[in-house]
Amino acid sequence: MSWWHRTDWLTRAGLLCLAVLVLGTVVATVFGIGGDPEAMVGPRLAPPGGDYPLGTDQLGRSMLPRLFEGIGTTLLLSTVAVLVTAVIATLLGIAAGYWGGWLGEVVMRLVEVLYSFPTIVLAILVAAVVGPGQTATVCSIILITIPLMTRLVRAAAIIVAQRDYVTSAVISGAGWPRILFRHVLPNISGTIAVQGTYALSVGILVEGGLSFLGFGVQPPQSSLGALIQQGSTYLIAAPWLVIVPGIVLVVAILAINVFGDGLRDSLEPREARSLV
Amino acid sequence: MRLFSWWLRRALSAVVTLFLVSILIFAASRLMPGGFAEVVLGPFASPEQKAEVSARYGLDQNILVQYWLWLTTALTGDFGISMISGEPVTTEFGLRLPVTAELTVAGFAAAICLGVPLGVYTAVRAGRGRTAAVGRLASGLGVSVPEFVLGSIVVFLFSRFALGLTVGGYVPLSEDPGQNLRSMVLPAAVLSVFVIAVTARTTRDAVLTVLVEPYITAAIARGESPWFIVTRHVLRNASIPVVTVLSTITAYLLGGAVIIEYLFNLPGVGSYIVQAVGRRDYAVVQAGVLLAAVVFIVLNTLTDAAAGALDPRFGTGSKARRSR
User: What is the pTM of this model?
Assistant: First the structure.
């Protein structure tokens, strides 16, 4: 039975939602649905309807293509950052978990150092050092998501390293690259996938927060956080500028979280019991 | 003796971590492009003026000397003066601590009074199935609404439709308690949504794990009432993840709820640090981040100690653990 059959409707709904967001954005970008996101075509702050399905912003740019561009930017930056995190955290976590000793000690100490920074302050420091923008966003997401993922990969690797199949591989003379990549890595891939999913939702949150404070993606490029930040100035006059990207942001994070929960439950099935 | 050596080991590792944090934060604050002199004097200052300002604050010395001076004075509790206001950094943080403390107390109270019971209730009521999925969706929604989205919407609703609570207009608690509460209710509520959802999720998970243990089966077989089982067996055995998440939340709130403070225009610790980053007010940035790290590490250590007390097998190197 594949993991898909062990998931419930909520998990599938989450995955479906994500697929729709990604495909919709790709299609809209490729076919240029809604026109040029940076063209100032309409009246300023026009409400949704007519030629501008989602209204226009303070410069008369149509919100529909800007929203698509924003979803694309946010998802792309978060995904790139989380992929980097996954690779680094997996290497560090496996090394620290399998070998332990002074190597494990050094890795855990570095992780602890990153962990003790308040998240948004860490992101803003990064933005101050490398300059606000996409690089700062990706770097902050990486630095914020690495500690937790490294810890959990290490914890999983410690357990796997004590399994009999690893011991027998060691006895039969397998070298460490073979043991790590043939025996340890496949058996902790579930942890990596689940944590990667959660890291993706954290990444989207960080992108949003950083852009909301003005240190993330810079205009005229749009991202979900940047759209909300720009819209919040005109909140009273044009609430749709915040509400629409806000809803999309919430749906994206919710879909990812729900999918992550379902993935975890299907990879590590547990018994359950109702007390009442 | 064993407990003592555990504390000693933890204290040593905390010192090492803090030392590394101090290096990182010092390096980061000096790597920011555009130094203090440029920010303070503006773009038209002559090199002589910049050199003079730098010399006045000791910024022309060797970077290692600067680090050493900062570290040694910080160890005596003196974090220097804010280069913008000229006041001691500790005084500046003291002014902003009440806001952060109020938000922390409110968030912590919400987590304990609402998050924990909600988590226990949903776990006990529903194992799996449709009701469980609804519970998952609801708590998932709470974790998935970013503060700046919920906050923006709340600001919009309350400023558009005069709903009785003020947005912004912070007044210190000591000046006018009534007005202070009126201005703090909304930020505290926005903050609490996330905090409650995280606590409820963790609690629910922990309780679900405990509920399938054999001793719960035995308790049910003995005919104990659900209330008795929950208060007597479940809560204590599910408490370690809950205590951990509560301490993480507290550390996060004490580090400053930057976005909430920004949205509701509250003079708290978090927005002060962010402001200081923008002004290159090095002493404030360094002290702020270092203190946040101290809070985080202290809370972390206390949590591990509490976990050891709640479950003797856990962490503190007790006999039970060693004999396994």
Answer: 0.89
